[in-house]
Amino acid sequence: MCGFTGFLSRSTPDVTALHAMGDSIIHRGPDEEGYYTDDHCAIAHRRLSIIDLAHGHQPMTSPDGRYILAYNGEVYNFQTLRTQLQELGHTFQTTSDTEVVLHGYMEWGAEVTGKLRGMFAFVIWDTQTKTLYGARDPFGIKPFYYAPMGDTFFFGSELKSFLPHPDFKKELNREALKFYLTFQYSALDESFFKGVFRLLPGHHFTYRDGKLDMSAYYTFSFEPDSKSLEEHAQEIREVVTESVEAHQISDVEVGAFLSGGIDSSVITALSHPDKTYSVGFANKGFDETSEAKALCEELGLKNISKTITAEEFFDILPTIQYYADEPNANLSTVPLYFLSKLAAQDVKVVLSGEGSDELFGGYITYHTTKPYRAYRKLPLPIRKAVAGVVSKLPPFHGQGFLTKAAKPVEDTFVGQAFIFDNDEVEQVLTPAYRSSRTWKDITAPYFARVKDADDLTKMQYLDLHLWQPLDILRKADRMTMANSLELRVPYLDREVWKVARSIPSNQKMRGKSTTKFPLRQAAVPMLPDDWIKRPKVGFPVPFIAWLKEEKYYNWAKDLINQDYVAEFFDQKYLLDLLEQHYSGKARTHRKLYTVLSFLIWYQVYFPEACGVAPYQPK
Question: At which positions is ATP bound (predicted)?
Answer without folding.
Answer: 279, 352-353
